[in-house]
Design brief:
The structure holds three protein chains of three kinds. Chain A is mainly beta. Chain A is built from five helices and 39 strands. In chain C, about 40% of the residues lie in helices and about 20% in strands. The chains are: A mainly beta, B mainly alpha, C alpha+beta. At the B-C interface, α4 of B face loops of C.
């Protein structure tokens, strides 16, 4: 009897073990060992409090009610007209039972009550200066608000940062950080970490000097400001600065790697994404292109533009820096997102960041030291031969070098890079990174240009067109451990929306002609299309997923075409001139026939 | 010389009268009188006498083209198709499409981001620039328009373009004489 | 009368010397070219003289009895003609071979002169505009990159590699003392190598008609010792000094706030225009407006007050400064040494 019981128990526990182990075993077969940095990705709480979802920037919702088998039944629950017809790039933010959205200029912030079917709770109108529209390169967008400690933080186009009460919508403080007379605007979503509101400027096309500013979240007072060019004391480079590569060591390189005074109007704006590692207390962010676009006017490496910084969050002191594109020749800003992962590299677990770079390389960089562990092309590249991992330097292709007095043809990737600002998502469930990106090449001519305060400082003329294959967009599922594509989807139009990964192994993204798509996230699925629906206008925003007050899983996205790629529709521009919108219009001639300007929030759920 | 050949020579000379040379005033047109009477007259007719000296003169238009790239106009408005700024090759003019409206826009700027170029450009240069801007929508006479697009992006030469009607932001044609 | 005509004929020879001479051989490339030219002169001269001599001889030949075609002049006559033809052909072949070889070797040694003996080479970029020369010196340490206009300084004995471009129409770069001409063509990159052999002041000139003011598109070339050149570079790399006198300060303010700074660059100040001559050290130059006027206070007044009177059609606009403003601007520009 005893023996029998023991056997029974053994069998039972074995079955339990087997049952519980199966999903993990299945995962282990698929999984590559990559997982988000634990300290930067707290457990799923059903909310979405910052555009990147968490400090690790995974843009992954652990909710799994919506899954591969039922996603086809998704239905809109409510929509909300935001009142603008410009590019909507922001992510809706969900805190408790309230959703917060921000519109492009004039940057209204709406609070929607999710318990009452999206009924507006309040609206905050910051009234940015109208003139800021004229110095906003590439549409008057805003990339989102962020929530922290009962407050909503956001920046307006004219360079003001606001803190407002999340409940009442009342202004708590306002800080002017940018000056539009110099061409400075702010389009990025701030990040709040360790009581610091981090925000950077836009305007790399206006000869702006880039910076990242940290404000005290309580008072809005300036905590520190780190410039991207100039002497060490302005860049906050001190004794703790230990870049991995020798070429980045030396005094005042932010001055010496420029022509005289070039750094004062040298760009390096920081309008992209910031990630934060709470364990190392380091923030990570990229710097934009040097100015002007014409590389001949700024001989040298143009430090510290087009690279990635790691800084101490409290003091702003730089820890390391890696320049992915020294002496940028093609407007390859390096402001793209970095996803903080812990994953095996050459058989050893390492704390890394994965960055789909604008220049077309998928960088894996050691978070603590700044060493580039690998850099593999994820799009078509002919402007650079590869990355030398010993020096971290890209290997140039001399015949693609733009020179005044000639037109350099067929440069790939084009000025918006293999991927622009629109962020990827990482699913710990599949171990894959989902990268919405573009496949464009360009012809480029450069000419001498004057810096005239408040006017574009470019000195280049560009004409873009589809890259090899003829598809302008690509949605890639990238395996960061195996350093290769798991699968990829070709999209006709450039992808300008973010990606969203969910626990149900469904990945969402939108296209510029308004299709909101759900595809199978699993490695072997080849990105099978599970569901799609056509929205009012093209999608260039960041979809999010949350648990509503009723316990159901929702997916929210904003539709409103615009941005650099969509300005042809939202401005609207004249397609007879291929150089419109800095040459992007040439690649987007068909867009006006395929979508129209608009501005609407859509929320989807499974029928009850 | 026979009287017949003399007569034909005289006729030949007469033909030379048809060789009209474009007038180039290197220093720019003098400012018109700005007494109250003249101003009132100007306001009534809404046409600045200087417009004529710039609008249909290809030299002035090509000088304007040079300034268009020197003053970074091209960064926002591209070669007429627009970008950060509105297109200039279509028929819509938010702030008026006559020479003097464009000169005013250049000199004083506009609230939605057009910077003011007064004291950065001389008055003469502003007029030259305005003449070029109007040529983007083929407003001047066909024979003074450029038969070649200089930029790499290969827009159509202006001579192949049709003259666009000048409409304000609302889409209606403004009152008053339009040249 | 005849003597006067002879003297007049000699007058152009005066061009063969001084600051704009193609026979001076002040540069290695120029000298090579010059000796090639001399050789061509000699060979073709001899041929010319021979041809003319034969012609004259043929014309003067008399007494030859006119013979009928059928009359056979005899084998002896034919043989003589054949020999003469063979000799003549051989002479031409030899001459052509000599010239071809000489051209080939000249080309080789001109190329060799461009290769620095000790790896030292000066990289310069010249952009031609209607109607001035934009000159940029590149240095490996980028902070010392300098820019100047209408004035080229070269160290003696160091090869200079010059990139040539044009922003508008075809121009031609020609410093006769140093080397031959080279065109600057919009939409193309071109280059020329110079190796100055002796110090001195020379004059360059646009050698391709480029518009109304083609004649006023000159270039002052200074070939100096290595030390002097280095000192000049150092001085040119300095940013502009802030003026000290109130008048010059007023001029500084005017230049910064008004039309000037939109097109002109003055390093170290807010004047960041790139499309007109760099003014950082304008007062240190020898001339104004591409050799149109010598540098001096009076000329600065004249030029700024009415650039269209001095050089009609150029791209510096007539601004119509008030006298007080003019005094101030000139005072400021004079400080830009």
């Amino acid at each position: 009897m005893k023996g029998w019981l023991r056997v029974r128990l053994k069998l039972l526990s074995g079955a339990v073990l087997l049952l519980s182990a199966t999903p993990f075993a299945g995962l282990a077969a698929q999984q590559n060992g990559a997982r988000p940095a634990a300290s930067a990705s707290p457990a799923e709480d059903g909310q979405w409090t910052m555009p990147a979802k968490n400090y690790a920037s995974t843009r992954y919702s652990g909710l799994n009610q919506i899954n591969i088998s039922n996603v086809a039944r998704l239905k809109p629950v409510f929509t909300f007209r935001v009142g603008t017809a410009k590019g909507l790039e922001a992510a809706p933010i969900v805190v408790g039972s309230t959703m917060y959205i921000i519109t492009p200029y004039p940057n209204y912030v709406w609070a929607l009550d999710l318990a009452k079917g999206g009924k507006p709770k309040w609206v905050f109108r910051p009234h940015p200066k109208p003139a800021s529209q004229g110095v906003a390169c590439c549409d008057v967008v805003n990339r989102g608000v962020t929530y922290s400690n009962g407050r909503i933080f956001f920046a307006t186009l004219d360079g003001s940062v606001f803190a407002i009460d999340a409940n009442s919508g009342r202004q708590i403080w306002r800080a002017q950080v940018g000056n539009i007379n110099k061409g400075e605007t702010v389009t990025m979503a701030p990040l709040v970490a360790e009581n610091r509101v981090l925000v950077g400027n836009s305007g790399g096309e206006f000869g702006v000097r880039g910076w990242l500013t940290a404000l005290d979240a309580g008072s809005g007072k300036l905590a520190w400001r780190a410039y991207s060019t100039g002497p060490d004391k302005d860049v906050l480079i001190g004794p703790s600065f230990k870049p991995f590569y020798a070429k980045d060591r030396g005094k005042d390189l932010g001055v010496k790697s420029w022509q005289p005074d070039g750094w004062k109007i040298g760009g390096g704006t920081t309008w992209g994404w910031i990630s934060y590692d709470p364990k190392l207390k380091l923030i990570y962010y990229g710097t934009g292109n040097p100015g002007p676009w014409n590389p001949e006017q700024r001989p040298g490496d143009d430090k510290w533009t087009a690279g990635v910084f790691a800084r101490d969050v409290t003091t702003g002191q730089a820890r390391w820096y890696y320049q992915s594109t020294p002496h940028d020749e093609f407007d390859h800003d390096d402001i793209n997102e970095q996803i903080l992962l812990d994953m095996p590299v050459n058989g050893r677990m390492r704390a890394v960041m994965v960055r789909p770079g604008r220049n077309g390389f998928m960088y894996v960089i050691d978070r603590a030291s700044g060493q580039v562990l690998s850099a593999d092309p994820y799009g078509f590249i002919n402007s650079v031969r590869g990355v030398d991992l010993k020096t971290g330097m890209p290997i140039p292709v001399p015949e693609k070098k733009p020179k005044s007095g000639r037109i350099t043809r067929n440069i790939c990737p084009a000025a918006p890079g293999a991927k622009d600002w629109n962020p990827s998502a990482f699913s710990p469930h599949t171990g894959l990174l989902y990268v919405p990106h573009i496949n464009l090449c360009m012809d480029m001519g450069v000419m001498e240009t004057s810096y005239i305060s408040g006017t574009p400082y470019l000195g280049a003329e560009v004409k873009m067109y589809a890259g090899p294959g003829g598809n302008r967009g690509v949605f890639t599922a990238w395996d960061p451990v195996r350093r290769k594509k798991a699968w990829e989807l070709k999209e006709d139009l450039p992808l300008w929306s973010g990606a969203l990964a969910t626990g149900g192994d469904v990945v969402f993204y939108g296209t510029m002609d308004g299709w909101f798509k759900a595809v199978d996230a699993r490695p072997g699925s080849n990105g099978r299309l599970l569901w799609q629906t056509k929205l009012d206008s093209g999608i260039i925003s960041q979809p999010v997923s949350y648990r509503g007050p009723d316990g159901r899983q929702y997916v929210a996205v904003m539709s409103g075409v615009g941005g650099w790629s969509g300005a042809i529709v939202s401005a609207p521009l004249d397609a007879r001139d291929p150089s419109s919108a800095l040459g992007f219009v040439n690649a987007m001639r068909d867009l006006p026939a395929r979508t129209k300007a608009g501005g609407r929030l859509y929320v989807f759920a499974l029928p009850r | 010389m026979s009287s017949r050949s003399r007569a034909s020579l005289a006729l030949l000379v007469l033909v030379l009268a048809g060789c009209d040379r474009e007038e180039r005033n290197a220093r720019g047109a003098p400012l018109p009188e700005t007494g109250p009477a003249q101003q009132a007259a100007l306001a009534a007719t809404h046409s600045d006498p200087r417009a004529k000296q710039y609008e249909n003169v290809s030299f002035q238009i090509s000088q304007g083209q040079r300034l268009y790239s020197w003053m970074n106009c091209v960064g926002c408005h591209a070669h007429g198709g627009g970008g950060m700024g509105p297109p200039l090759m279509d028929e819509k003019w938010r702030y008026g499409g006559r020479m003097e409206d464009i000169v005013a826009t250049i000199q004083k700027g506009r609230p939605n981001g057009m910077p003011a170029f007064e004291h950065k450009l001389t008055e003469q240069q502003a007029w030259q620039l305005a003449a070029y801007v109007r040529s983007l929508s083929a407003q001047p006479r066909q024979d003074v328009l450029s038969g070649r697009a200089d930029e790499m992006s290969n827009t159509e030469p202006q001579t192949l373009d049709e003259r666009k009607p000048v409409k304000d932001a609302a889409g209606s044609e403004p009152k008053g004489p339009v040249k | 009368m005849r003597r006067a005509a002879l003297l007049l004929l000699l007058l152009p020879l005066a061009g063969c010397d001084g600051i704009q001479s193609m026979t001076g051989g002040d540069g290695a490339q120029g000298a090579e070219f010059n000796s090639l030219f001399t050789l061509f002169m000699v060979v073709t001269g001899v041929v010319y003289i021979l041809v003319i001599a034969f012609l004259i001889a043929a014309l003067l030949r008399r007494g030859g009895k006119r013979t009928d075609v059928r009359d056979d002049p005899g084998e002896g006559h034919e043989r003589g003609l054949t020999t003469a033809l063979v000799v003549w052909t051989a002479f031409i072949a030899l001459g052509l071979t000599v010239l071809t070889l000489a051209s080939y070797f000249t080309d080789r040694s001109m190329a060799a002169a461009a290769v620095p003996a000790n790896g030292e080479v000066l990289n310069i970029e010249i952009t031609a505009n209607q109607w001035w020369w934009d000159i940029r010196y590149h240095s490996p340490t980028h902070t010392e990159t300098i820019r100047t206009a209408n004035e080229l300084h070269l160290p003696v004995g160091i090869p200079a590699h010059i990139q040539l471009r044009s922003t508008d129409v075809i121009h031609s770069f020609w410093v006769p003392n140093l080397a031959g001409k080279q065109d600057l063509i919009p939409g193309r990159l071109n280059d020329i190598d110079l190796l100055p052999r002796r110090t001195g002041l020379f004059r360059g000139q646009c050698a391709e008609f480029c518009g109304a003011q083609h004649a006023h598109m000159a270039l002052d070339v200074t070939v100096e010792s290595r030390d002097a050149f280095r000192a000049w570079w150092r001085q040119q790399a300095e940013p502009a000094k802030t003026p000290t006198t109130p008048l010059a300060m007023a001029g500084y303010n005017y230049v910064m706030q008004r039309e000037c700074s939109v097109c002109h660059n003055i390093s170290g100040t807010g004047a960041t225009g790139q499309v007109a001559p760099d003014l950082t050290h304008v007062a240190s130059r020898k001339s104004l407006a591409a050799g149109t006027l010598p540098m001096g206070r009076g000329q600065l007044y004249a030029w700024i007050a009415d650039p269209q009177g001095v050089k009609p059609g150029n791209n510096m606009p007539y601004i119509g400064l008030e006298p007080q403003e003019l005094h101030a601007v000139v005072a400021y520009l004079e400080t830009l040494k």
